[in-house]
Fold this protein.
Amino acid sequence: MVIVLEKNISEEKIETIIKKLEEFKFSVHKSTGVEQIVLGAIGVHPTFDIRKVKVLDGVSEVYRITEPYKLASRSFKKENTEININGVIVGGNEIEVMAGPCAIENEDQIFEIAKIVADAGAKILRGGAFKPRTSPYSFQGLGEEGLKLLRKAADENNLVVISELMETKQVHLLEEYVDIIQIGARNMQNFPLLKVVGKSNKPVMLKRGLAARVEDLLMSAEYILASGNPNVILCERGIRTFETYTRNTFDISAIPVIHKRSHLPIIADPSHAIGIRDKVLPMARAAIAAGADGIMIEVHNHPEQALSDGPQSLLPDQFAELMKQIKLIAEVIGRKM
Amino acid sequence: MVIVLEKNISEEKIETIIKKLEEFKFSVHKSTGVEQIVLGAIGVHPTFDIRKVKVLDGVSEVYRITEPYKLASRSFKKENTEININGVIVGGNEIEVMAGPCAIENEDQIFEIAKIVADAGAKILRGGAFKPRTSPYSFQGLGEEGLKLLRKAADENNLVVISELMETKQVHLLEEYVDIIQIGARNMQNFPLLKVVGKSNKPVMLKRGLAARVEDLLMSAEYILASGNPNVILCERGIRTFETYTRNTFDISAIPVIHKRSHLPIIADPSHAIGIRDKVLPMARAAIAAGADGIMIEVHNHPEQALSDGPQSLLPDQFAELMKQIKLIAEVIGRKM
Amino acid sequence: MVIVLEKNISEEKIETIIKKLEEFKFSVHKSTGVEQIVLGAIGVHPTFDIRKVKVLDGVSEVYRITEPYKLASRSFKKENTEININGVIVGGNEIEVMAGPCAIENEDQIFEIAKIVADAGAKILRGGAFKPRTSPYSFQGLGEEGLKLLRKAADENNLVVISELMETKQVHLLEEYVDIIQIGARNMQNFPLLKVVGKSNKPVMLKRGLAARVEDLLMSAEYILASGNPNVILCERGIRTFETYTRNTFDISAIPVIHKRSHLPIIADPSHAIGIRDKVLPMARAAIAAGADGIMIEVHNHPEQALSDGPQSLLPDQFAELMKQIKLIAEVIGRKM
Amino acid sequence: MVIVLEKNISEEKIETIIKKLEEFKFSVHKSTGVEQIVLGAIGVHPTFDIRKVKVLDGVSEVYRITEPYKLASRSFKKENTEININGVIVGGNEIEVMAGPCAIENEDQIFEIAKIVADAGAKILRGGAFKPRTSPYSFQGLGEEGLKLLRKAADENNLVVISELMETKQVHLLEEYVDIIQIGARNMQNFPLLKVVGKSNKPVMLKRGLAARVEDLLMSAEYILASGNPNVILCERGIRTFETYTRNTFDISAIPVIHKRSHLPIIADPSHAIGIRDKVLPMARAAIAAGADGIMIEVHNHPEQALSDGPQSLLPDQFAELMKQIKLIAEVIGRKM
């Protein structure tokens, strides 16, 4: 921690601040600058609230110099984390595609879509059984029945399964049916949920919250890692800004930023970021071009009848075209699909 | 719903759009303007996803004309909702103050602070037993032991109790000890949690999320109301913006906006919005001047030793001064304290 | 400047970084922490681009420790700047109100409104002669003719005049007619304009831009101060966020923040921040309660016929009521009106 | 314009609102819905301030149904605007690259960089002679001397020239030396400047402001188009959000959004959006993959000595590599370079 003192501060106040820092278990280093005195407080206390120093009399600014996350950081682990899910490796050289409907609606729907997904070459099937909906009057998902259908449809097409967990008490139910547990954007800071999946032996995909800085996303990943689960996949899906022509602002630059700060794989979800079908293809291409380790795409055989998020779902032939295009872009940057 | 069609659209496309709207159970009304044709789709479907119409060929813009929330709206209920909690009425003419430490730390701490709070004239004691912390390494609260101490300290000082619920499974535990259940900002869209408190017979205080529009806050209130609990108190505590000199941006204008849109009471929490003690007093005054039905303030007897949020907690004498000042402001706008 | 080095950095890289810093004319101070080495770069170079150090091999984080503004800072000048404009003092104990129409439209309009403003007790008349309009098809102001009318209406009512400057070449024209030159939010970083008013002998009111941090506002003030004009008044008028129920988000907490960081007076403009008449009164009260040195309010005798911003203009009796209420709030916090 | 009335509104109030709309020169169409009455106000008044209706008694919501811009809209002009600048066509199938230093510093620098730019295959040379700097103490550009050097360096390498205009009075000076006039992000709503370049016969590149919605950008383009200059190039360069690990948030989704809404070409500037060299390459690739008509890149032969924005400038070999990679991506999406 670095503490910048106010200009013309008295010796007495400096002494009081130094004493306080020592009480907080820091060893203190004093540098006298041209205009200001700077204190270096040495010692590793990742959870120390720096505002405790900010409020001291005579302190002008305080900077934390260590990242607040540790296990999630690139400085803790240099090599990329590769997560092997029944032979599908997320975080390696190959780009992985997660595709499927927003919500599982019935047997025909999920079986048809699973085949479309597999035929186009994707390896991971998505589908929600428990749906976080902003309106209490909207379709809330099929629950366990949905998970069963999802598993069967995936198995028949040799796909890996991802689905969202919304409550701590459903974690064992999800573990039974899915290969990757998804934590949605609205639950990114639902800490009891993070702790529960941190104890699971299933990989977890953690979506960035609408108001979350990349630092916050990595702090939430830290919760899962610190609870014992090393297999965390991050997912960029758009942040909330003042722009109104798109649903959210898809922060593609978070992809190279995360690759620099962390060893964890990062997936991009253009469907949720943009919210309208005709922008999904260019944004998927952009995410791959920026270095994403994979993408998550909503696909529906009859989007106009979908119970949830139909308007942002791709039609089967649009999805096949997307797969073709991103494969070519992957090759440009030396990756496979 | 109002649908603006593209300029120079063919008759055939118009027919297709109208047929589609009728399939969605709307009756359709066509107006031919100078430059564009506008369709009115009449019928009340609060959960209809308007993007289903946006993606139709020939459609330029779509506007939902009914608010997506109903029970929470002022048009549903004209009079202010007043919530009587053991004689303390939130949402009436009297302004109520909720005060106490961020987290309950031990018996001495909570008893001393409860006395300070009561002596200064506040009627509601706050204190966290389960703490949502961005770092997994931070103090996470005393749990049930904390709730017991909080209850005892409140009873001894004739105070009403508010504390935060973080998990569905703890709801009965909280109901046993507290008078108002708080839902924190990070859980504003934790829908299972909203449903559970919607079934509770305790009043609920719902904090606005960092990325939540006022509309989203009212939609989350709708979840609780629709589940059967009419006693919802809203709370503004700052939104996330690009400004860095304050922790969050305290959106005080949300107070009159909510009073116009909804009948529910609205409380302001300047401590969390600003994050540093010396701005809490002016922001508390501002919130009351803007018409807030109450404020929530962090108070600590030894903030420099607090296990959580000490730097934003007021000292006892600062709190007493705040009570004095906001009482005078309350009088200016014709309210009591 | 404080430079945090990467963990396990080689001695050679450290040497290279230190050499580089010395080339940049800093003297360097090295602290070895538990996990990381920190360099203090001592020397005052307010315009140094810290990214020059960020890109060096082995550097993890860089923090500037001096504020980038100097003349605008409270550490440069401890006492509040009081600006005397023909006997009206902005920045003193008295709260000043600037009121009038958005745009000057004709003689009758501005004379009637000037009288309303003076009768209600305000001392400064506002009115735009050159209007920044987002649409090229909107009314752009009366130009010099408007300034003449504004001056005459003010003189007849013993008021001080403020009006907006939009182009460097109009500065002498404005100086002829107005007492305070306003720089609008959209021109906050129009640097040639800032330099020109920096050479003027008239006080300048500088409005915060929609995307400006408080730091940016103070940097723009620095431009004016550094050009030789010490009489700068700051103005908070709302920032752009994701909220859609209000036109902008009125950042009232900027008021105490600016009072702490700077010696310059700060005015609040609730009319532009909120954009709709019925929220102006509560927000004006809130701004005064937060410590603003004054407010700017749009008033119109026939708002429904106003050529610009009628919907956010107060009616004469609403304005009189506002003056009464904020006077009472001013007294609560020990200020006069 | 569509006006939703309050529920249970009296016939009398409806009459008053209709009469008012007719006074505003709209013809009115009334639809009676299940719960609410909706009025359609027909007539084209692009500059009508809809808040004039919002404030009427009995009105609940108002929606403008025509876009506020006309000449800039895709509905006004279906085909892409292609701008031919001495044989270099912006907005056609070929992707164009604008590259060069942030600021022109001296003859050697600009000649060396111009050669690097041309050798790598780019056709447009950028370089600032007048620099908008947030600090008054920073290097402000060489002025006319810089423009002369820029022109000579471009001519020697057969390049087209773009440079920024900051003040209306410099427009003729710029016209003498440059082929494309740039309006910077901070001047996007400097309306006198927009009008002046609207009268120029040179193409204009208009950068999106930090707080500008796409709609605002198109409104500013409308100013230039309405003043008579049809050759406007738009430029996305990042918006301001709460994220702190990047300088701005590069809104790549604006690219397909603008292509849908407008016929004008759109260029992406990843250097300014990101602010640090090592993210420029992936973001340039992403912009091209998203469909940008070109990119603007800062290149410097000695970035560590650059007087402005060195840290975000690419080294010559990084730039050559970028050119190679984006050429391949251009081919994937059927475009040339």
Notes: DSSP finds eleven helices and 14 strands in chain A. Chain A has two domains: 2-63, 83-332.
